[in-house]
Amino acid sequence: MAEQFVCKAAEFKDGDRRIVRIGKHEIGIFKHKGDILAYSNYCLHQGGPACEGLTIARVEEHLNADKTSKGLFFSEKDMNFVCPWHGMEYDMMTGECISDRKLKLKQYKVITKGEDLYVSV
Ligand code: FES
Hints:
Bound molecules: FE2/S2 (inorganic) cluster
Number of helices: 0
Distance between the termini: 6 Å
Number of domains: 1
Low-confidence stretches: none
CATH architecture: 3-layer Sandwich
Radius of gyration: 16 Å
């Protein structure tokens, strides 16, 4: 198992991201609401840098009791990241593609060693 230093844990704030490479693996690491999540940086669409685009709250449609729409709203709890090439969106917490949840980015393990964060493959 190979490991790569990411950064000092104290320097990695909510909303931050890092991109690291381990051999042929390019990995995007996010910190979101205290969770540290690491995914393959190769988009499942055409191989774009999936982890390097916008992070954006998920857009949800809220419905009335009769199922008519109240409109579209930004989620207060769910966050997505968006591949910058063609806009494929991924769930920040799972790496699943929002438009097809059967598709999922490879997830990597992040390890804390003392004050340092490492990602392993
Ligand atoms: S390569 Fe990522 S959306 Fe097309």
